[in-house]
Amino acid sequence: MTEARRRRIEEVLRRRQPDLTVLLENVHKPHNLSAILRSCDAVGVLEAHAVNPTGGVPTFNETSGGSHKWVYLRVHPDIQTAIGHLREKGFRIYATALREDAQDFREVDYTQPTAILLGAEKWGVSEEALALADSAIQVPMFGMVQSLNVSVAAAVILFEAQRQRLKAGLYEGPRLDPELYQRVLEDWLRK
Ligand code: SAM
Fold this sequence. Notes:
Number of strands: 7
Bound molecules: S-adenosylmethionine
Shape: globular
Distance between the termini: 10 Å
Largest sheet: 7 strands, parallel
Number of domains: 1
Helix content: 25-40%
Order of helices and strands: HEHEEHEEEHEHH
Strand content: 15-25%
CATH superfamily: SPOUT methyltransferase, trefoil knot domain
Radius of gyration: 16 Å
Structural class: alpha/beta
CATH class: Alpha Beta
């Protein structure tokens, strides 16, 4: 491990946002999952969450660019457990959904603890998850095609969160408490 590599790792860790995350409901295609984790890495998500249709460990491919090494992924057995876990930690859960009563995604305050719930390619976020979420948001669509690819929707929303957090100074100093910072640092230095 060179000094430059260690400095780079610390620089990235200092910008990690423990209170910004995604919850992926049955987003199982490796290229979508990989692309989402890559955007998570870029905006500083420390840990992403997933519920998998098969119950197995999700798989990644080269689309991740190696980002899955740097963004933890916690897999939950079902959506109630996942949302319960996030709510207990103080997250507000925004379900992405293409419906009339969904707010424009730019109206949300992402400087607060935020989890963005994204759904499966074919069916979207389930009715059960929508009922458990705090509110619904959408990226307005003016084209012929009804929806975005899930990884694109994730990126658009995450980068709005990044814009707001930059403005609020949330990337200026370490956001992890010292004990967690040290634990993650030791883990990353071993990679
Ligand atoms: N037929 C599905 C539906 O009605 O929800 C489309 C699913 S879409 C291909 C897959 C996921 O991408 C959605 O569950 C949502 O998480 C996200 N998504 C796609 N377009 C979106 C948009 N315009 N606004 C917010 N999320 C979107």
